[in-house]
Design brief:
about 325 residues; mainly alpha; Receptor-associated Protein; three-stranded antiparallel beta sheet; about 70% helix; elongated
């Protein structure tokens, strides 16, 4: 999501500056206005070393372990009764991640200017996802921030474990696929041509699969540059298409249809839904707001659309159990 720099005035007429993550300049201006400021300049901040419209963007991410440590330290200081401003000064001083330290500094400045903690965190969407900010906001409203931080720690650690399990489950199939691809090209470009020359000199008639393999070898030998060019164009084309909403939906739908892998992703998404939805409800987040948050953090565009459909039906007065029964991907247990 793009980052916008803004200049605004608060209710006392004092100029303030800051950064906010938003999809457009209008959305950024509205978000600044919701914080109680009057924006008079909103400009998109360009990433260093990148250009607008480039296929490659330099983005700085915070490691999951750093976010967990930050949340645990924040919880400990908050439970100890340390004032919020002092808490963030301490966190800024001892955080190892440079990106997270800069975000903490920005949050600290926003809090000093009177912004709510959840609003200040939402300005850094690449670090604090909507789920994180929504739960902090619910904790602020209900006065249960320490308990909310406890639940956040559990969710983040649970999410990290699920991602680790998925990577471990996919590691062996990926290694086998790479090995088979390498073996196929070695067989096609080295082994088969040598045996084919030997058989042809001996006057043997080659079988159809061998003839097809020889034809593929000749094609690679004569048109390898076209093949590489086609692959490059295909990669860039798919990369651009997958940045669109329809492209992401198509990609995620295809992933869910892959045997074994698709079922693994669906089970992981349902586990994520159950744990996060339960935590949001325990934190006092309304059901419709919880479904909106889940739609943005579930990690799959196809399942996310189902959440949007469920939320629309619930907004019309239908119960959550009835709508989930008619939705795709949701198991009878859910």
């Amino acid at each position: 999501m793009p980052i916008y720099s803004y200049e605004a005035m608060d209710g006392r007429g004092i100029a303030v500056k800051g950064e906010i993550a938003a999809k457009s300049s209008d959305e950024a201006a509205n978000a600044v206005a919701e914080q109680g400021y009057t924006p008079f300049k909103v400009t998109e901040k360009k990433a260093h070393g990148s250009k607008s419209g480039s296929f490659f963007r330099i983005t700085q991410k915070v490691k999951l372990a750093d976010l967990i440590i930050f949340t645990k330290q924040f919880r400990s200081l908050f439970k100890a009764g340390v004032p919020l401003v002092r808490t963030f000064q301490i966190l800024e001083a001892q955080t190892q991640s440079r990106t997270l330290r800069q975000a903490i500094s920005s949050i600290l400045q926003s809090v000093k200017e009177g912004a709510a903690l959840s609003a200040a965190m939402s300005n850094h969407g690449s670090i604090f996802p909507p789920l994180y900010c929504s739960m902090i906001e619910a904790g602020e409203m209900s006065g249960t921030v320490p308990e909310t931080l406890e639940r956040l720690i559990y969710i983040i650690e649970h999410e990290g474990k699920i991602k680790s399990d998925i990577k471990a489950a996919l590691q062996y199939p990926i290694m086998v696929t790479i090995a088979l691809t390498i073996a196929f090209f070695v067989l096609l470009t080295v082994v088969i041509p040598k045996f084919a020359d030997t058989f042809l000199k001996a006057g043997f008639e080659l079988p159809l699969p061998t003839l097809i393999a020889i034809s593929l070898y000749k094609f690679l030998l004569n048109y390898w540059h076209l093949l590489i060019g086609g692959i490059v164009v295909l990669v860039f084309g798919l990369r651009a298409y997958f940045k669109t909403e329809n492209g992401q939906y198509m990609r995620d739908s295809l992933i869910l249809r892959i045997p074994v892998i698709g079922e693994l992703f669906i089970k992981a998404a349902m586990s994520r839904f159950a744990s996060i939805f339960g935590m949001l409800q325990s934190s006092g987040v309304p059901v419709l707001s919880a479904m909106k948050v889940l739609s943005g953090v579930i990690g799959n565009r196809a399942i996310s659309r189902e959440f949007d459909r469920v939320r629309d039906y619930m907004g019309e007065g239908q119960g959550i159990a009835v709508t989930l029964k008619t939705a795709k991907f949701f198991t009878p247990m859910v």
